[in-house]
From TrEMBL:
GO terms for molecular function: transcription corepressor activity; zinc ion binding. Transmembrane segments: none annotated. Keywords: Bromodomain, Metal-binding, Zinc, Zinc-finger. GO terms for cellular component: cytoplasm; nucleus. Residues 179-229 form the Bromo domain. This is PWWP domain protein. Residues 271-322 form the PWWP domain. Pfam families: Bromodomain, PWWP. The keyword Manganese does not apply. The lineage of its organism: Eukaryota, Metazoa, Ecdysozoa, Arthropoda, Hexapoda. Residues 1-65 are annotated as: Disordered. Coiled coil: none annotated. Residues 34-65 have a biased composition (Basic and acidic residues).
């Protein structure tokens, strides 16, 4: 496969986050990477992957497979425990398996599973998906529509395509019937994209589980050797896991990061608590608390270069106006000053969107067991703001659409229902503003001032009851007729 250099449009983290750090920043961040899980490069919004892709689906001339691999598979292959199941162990990738999952086609050695096996046993991959989809503790932040999830997973797949050392995953087993006997679930970027387009995924972890098949198949084809193909699959899976974590942590941040350059200063529908967080060997740094980990460890993103890290709660203070650092070097102080400017821009957006912001008292310890109280004290009214945002997202979509006809009258049509998500909330607000603007142009402000609130209520809070919908329709149609009549009178 012909290798290419990283395309110019595949921006690094510095250009992605719209910051220009100094050379000292680069050195400091490189050393911090031992403690910080870096976010990797992202594509610019709207980039066409086909223009930059390192992957050639037509060039198999340098594929790392040979006839010896096929001979090895012929020697070790044995029939699976159940028809259609895998003949190789999901854990160790060797043949001679003796059990299969009751829900999927994965197979195992009983010695590799190390669990009690019965006829209803399901593998850890299937059980983890069930836990995610049916968990009662699932955060509202992670409740995504299938449409929005598919959009986010498309961004993740684009990132995966640029994994280091990426080999084409159009395998010979897809082109010959011989390999189909050994590879029961051939997975490559094309199959993943097809499932995303078909909206078959209901959580990001399902994409991770499918990507694991790429690594499993690479091990089988490579006869268990740590080949270049295996290393490539590991890199792809690593990126997939990172993207899935970001999606599950805050889908809104993930969407904005892939579509906007100023995403980090924006305010999410469920705002993030602001902290002074400290990594060992570095000063306290302003950060957002993204999520809580285990044993009082917080997943944070630092202002500035937007690095990700897991920081102990005891090393965090609530964000105060005064810097908790007792001493910093001149270069670090300049960096910190630039980051604080970004924090202030974010705080100003909080004030505009939520209504207020209160700096925490100096060196107030962060309490991981009382996040909501601390968030309310820092952003007064935030809980009511979050409830309003939740109503916008979960409310039944508008069933009626008002538009202007060719004869300059207003008419109404019934809309098909759509799946509510984060984008829909913005569309609803735009529709409401559009109605107001159109009404103003028709010189019917006096009528609308008395009736617009009622019309808006009917538009957004109609019930599923058919009779009620008919009543709503008649009421709105009467109002529109009155508006059109008034408009005609004014024109005359």
């Amino acid at each position: 496969m012909t290798t290419t250099t990283t395309p110019p449009s595949l921006r690094d983290k510095k250009s992605r986050d719209n910051s220009v750090p100094s050379s000292s920043s680069s050195n400091r961040r490189r050393s911090r990477s031992k403690s910080t899980e870096k976010s990797t490069k992202r594509l610019k919004a709207g980039d066409d992957l086909s223009e930059h892709s390192e992957i050639s689906n037509d060039d198999d001339s340098h594929h790392p497979l040979n006839v010896g691999d096929l001979d090895h598979l012929r020697k070790v292959w044995q029939p699976p425990p159940k028809p259609g199941a895998d003949s190789f162990c999901w854990k160790c990738h060797d043949a001679a398996v003796d059990i299969s999952c009751n829900k999927c086609i994965r197979s195992f050695h009983t010695t590799c599973v190390k669990a009690k096996i019965d006829s209803s046993w399901i593998c850890t991959e299937c059980s983890s998906i069930e836990n995610i989809l049916h968990s009662s503790k699932k955060s509202r932040r992670n409740e995504l529509s299938v449409d929005l999830l598919s959009q986010l997973l498309t961004f993740a797949l684009k990132r995966m395509r640029f994994a280091k050392g990426n080999y084409t995953f159009v395998m010979p087993y897809e082109k010959t019937n011989t390999y189909k006997k050994y590879i029961v679930n051939p997975v490559h970027f094309g199959t993943l994209q097809e499932k995303i387009n078909a909206k078959e995924y209901h959580c990001a972890e399902e994409l991770v589980n499918d990507t694991k098949w790429m690594l499993h198949n690479a091990y089988i084809i490579s006869a268990g050797n740590n080949s270049k193909l295996v290393q490539s699959a590991k890199n792809i899976l690593k990126i997939c896991r990172q993207e899935a974590i970001e999606i599950e942590t805050c889908a809104e941040c993930y969407l904005n990061a892939n579509t906007r350059t100023d995403w980090f200063v924006d305010v999410c529908s469920q705002p993030h608590l602001l902290l002074w967080a400290k990594l060992k060997g570095f000063p306290y740094w302003p950060a957002k608390a993204m999520s809580m980990g285990q044993t009082s460890v917080i997943n944070v993103r630092f202002f500035g270069e937007h690095d990700r890290a897991f920081v102990s709660a005891k090393d965090c203070f609530l964000y105060s106006e005064q810097d908790p650092n007792t001493q910093t070097g001149k270069k670090a102080a300049r960096e910190l000053a630039g980051c604080i400017k970004e924090v202030e821009e974010h705080i100003e957006k909080i004030r505009n969107k939520i209504g207020g912001f209160q700096y925490a008292p100096f060196k107030t310890p962060f309490d991981p067991n009382d996040v909501m109280r601390q968030l309310e004290e820092m952003m007064p009214g935030v809980q009511e703001f979050m409830r309003q945002q939740q109503v916008l997202v979960t409310k039944t979509p508008l069933q009626f659409k008002i538009y202007r006809t060719a004869d300059n009258n207003m008419s109404i049509v019934q809309k098909a229902s759509s799946t509510p998500d984060l984008v829909l909330a913005q569309q609803q607000q735009q529709q409401q503003q559009s109605i107001q603007d159109t009404s103003s142009n028709l010189n019917a402000q006096s009528i609308l001032s008395n009736n617009f609130d009622f019309s808006q209520h009917l538009l957004t809070n109609h019930t599923a009851n058919k009779q009620q919908q008919d009543d709503d329709w008649l009421c709105i149609q009467k109002e529109l007729n009155l508006i059109n009549t008034t408009s005609s009178t004014n024109d005359n």
